[in-house]
Amino acid sequence: MTRRQLVFGAGALGALGAIAMVVGFATDSTQAAFSYLTAWAFAASIAIGALIFLMMGHAIEARWTIVLQRFTEAVSGSLPVLAVLFVPIALSIDRLYPWAALPAGPPGLDAESLARLAHKAPYLNPTFWVIRAVVFLAVWIALDELLVRWGRRGGDPGARSRARGLSAAGFPVVGLTVTFAAFDWLMSVTPLWYSSIFGLRYFAAGFVGALALVAVIARAARRVPAVAASVRGSHTGALGRLMFAFLVFWAYMEFSQGIIIWIGNKPDEVPWYVARGASEWGAVFWVIVIGHFALPFFALLSKPLKRRPTLLAIAGGWLVVMHYVDMLWLVMPALHPTISLHWLDLAAPCAVLGLATAVAAARPRSREAIATDDPRLPAAIDYEGT
Questions:
Q1: Contact between 205 and 188 (Cβ < 8 Å)
Q2: Distance CA 15, CA 21 (A)
């Protein structure tokens, strides 16, 4: 598939999905809002993960990431369109978040729960929530645009130095903004529940998803001779090792959060897991345990698999799908106590992912598959990992 075909195909899919979502918001606005939030949070996590991967490469001046840099920049290049696609979430705030109904509060809450929500009102209120969202998105987009601009001047030591400095200084900023964004957009769907490591969990899942998507793109781009000649088993091996490491980190975050809440057995913490461990959602939980962790864990243990682009791309595609299942498991139990598949659950990812992919692929930064203008590229191609 050529880049033009990708832009046209993804754009058509996104347009059809957007039309379906307009119908969904008109006929079942609550279901549409939750389906859309799931799809958007999934896409945003991967774009942010790609930004962090890009920052990592600049901060440590890794050579092997240079051959994958254009693919990473293409994924993070979806951040501006995702900022625009955030608007339906902001307009659906009263459908998604119980705290948006204060001071009256959502129906069915007792006086103690209403008082706890009111205590959070200085932070969880629509105006401040929107302001924070604008700041988060602006910070990520600004970092990405500057890094891409400086990163494309690889022959300029000054540009490389600025990219390295910005990346190093930007890690704490991105870490904090991603953490609070996860609190705002996902955790506050159930505002009476909280976890201090929820942001780390969201980051880790998105970072694994971004690495997995880069592996898929790198394999698909091998039809370009420059890519086939540049991306070797040593590069996919390094990418696979990073995927493996952060897959374990994600699982550790998930396990730590769950075991601490299970041991504590506090009435304000347990209901979140009860909702996601009961009935059909309990089956989805085991799908995530096996499909998102166990199978990829043992697959990525294999050195030959990681060094074969096709096999790593298959594992990457599987991880991307499992990441979406994981996002459904995080969001949807707040709306449906049992699994209730809806046509909007298909329309939403078509709209968000289709439009984001089309715009990212159409951007000028996506025209080059390999950083041929970077004088460090020969050394990057000759990289040999363990």
A1: no
A2: 10
From residue 116, alpha-carbon distances to 100, 121, 130, 321, 353 in Å are 14, 9, 21, 36, 36
Q: Angle of helix 29-59 relative to helix 3-27, nearest 10 degrees?
A: 140
Q: In this structure, what token pair is assigned to residue 275?
A: 């909702």
Long-range contacts of 151-159 (CB under 8 A, 24+ apart): 151/54, 151/58, 151/69, 151/73, 151/371, 152/365, 152/371, 152/373, 154/66, 154/371, 154/373, 154/374, 154/375, 154/376, 154/377, 155/373, 155/374, 155/375
Collect the ranges in the chain with pLDDT lower than 50: none
> Exposed/middle/buried for 55, CB within 10 Å: 0-12, 13-18, 19+?
buried
The overall pTM is greater than 0.90:
yes
Q: Please report, to the nearest 10 degrees, the dihedral formed by the alpha carbons of residues 334, 337, 343, 349 taken in order.
A: 40
Q: What is residue 105's predicted lDDT score, i.e. its pLDDT?
A: 61
Q: Using omega within 30 degrees of 0 as the cis cutoff, is the peptide bond preceding 333 cis?
A: no
CA 30 to chain centre: 23
Helix (H) or strand (E) holding 16: helix 3-27
Q: Report how far residue 270's alpha carbon sits from residue 266's, in angstroms, rounded to the nearest whole number.
A: 6
Q: Are 71 and 218 in contact (CB under 8 A)?
A: yes
Measured in Å, how far apart are the chain's first and last C-alpha atoms?
Answer: 33
168, 186, 169, 189: which is closest to 178 by C-alpha? Answer: 186
Residues 52-85: pLDDT tens digits?
999 999 999 888 999 999 999 999 999 999 999 9
**Longest CA–CA separation in the chain, Å:** 67
Reading the block at residue 244, the tokens are 């493996």
- Can you tell me the distance from the alpha carbon of 334 to that of 96, in angstroms, rounded to the nearest whole number? 9
Instruction: Name the percent of the chain in helix, strand, coil, to the closest 5.
Output: 80, 0, 20
Task: Rounding to the nearest 10 degrees, give the CA dihedral for residues 291, 213, 4, 373.
Answer: -160
Positive or negative: CA dihedral 177, 182, 185, 189? negative
Give the per-residue pLDDT at 107: 66
Alpha-helical (H) ranges within 288-376 are: 295-300, 303-306, 309-331, 344-362
pLDDT of residue 14: 97
Tokens 């993070």 -> residue:
76
Q: What pLDDT shows up at residue 364?
A: 80
